[in-house]
Amino acid sequence: MKQSQQFFAEYVQLYRPLLNRLNNLLAPYQLFHSQWGILKLLRIDGEMTSAEIAIRRQVEKPSVTKIVQRLLEMGLVSIRPGTDRREKWIGLTEQGQVTVASIMADLEVFYEDLLEGATEEDLEAGIRILQLANKNLYK
Q1: Dist CA 4 CA 64 (whole Å)
Q2: Is the pLDDT at 84 greater than 90, yes or no?
Q3: Which of 24, 91, 94, 132 would be a feasible disulfide site paired with 47, CB 3.0-4.6 Å?
Q4: Residue 87, pLDDT score
Q5: What's the CATH number where 68 sits?
Q6: What is the pTM of this model?
Q7: Strand partners, 81
Q8: Partners of 92 in the β-ladder
Q9: Could you please report the per-residue DSSP string of 47-112?
């Protein structure tokens, strides 16, 4: 098998078990990885609209709307009107900020354990390769 094929075979082998473990780590917070992805995006980049979230998360807008509604019910996000009456800005609440910080601390330990034995150079190379593959996927 060519190295390029093995690289992606390894990625596919990692992907599903990683999501399962991530969901297990998020379970005490009553969250799933799809919800976590939106919370983390809002934490890192700040308020945005459903349309922006859909583009950034590469999911359909109705999926974002459903997830945001659940996060709203949980008190983790708030929605405020924009200048256009159709525009609604989604952001983290104070409770959402605290929850995200707690999850990020939990995940830091998890990720460090997963990457045990990897050097900084290994991580930088891995990040570059995945970014390149992502870029080439959309050209």
Answers
A1: 33
A2: no
A3: 91
A4: 85
A5: 1.10.10.10
A6: 0.88
A7: 88
A8: 77
A9: -B-HHHHHHHHTS-HHHHHHHHHHHHHTTSEEEEE-SSTT-EEEEE-HHHHHHHHHHHHHHHHHHH
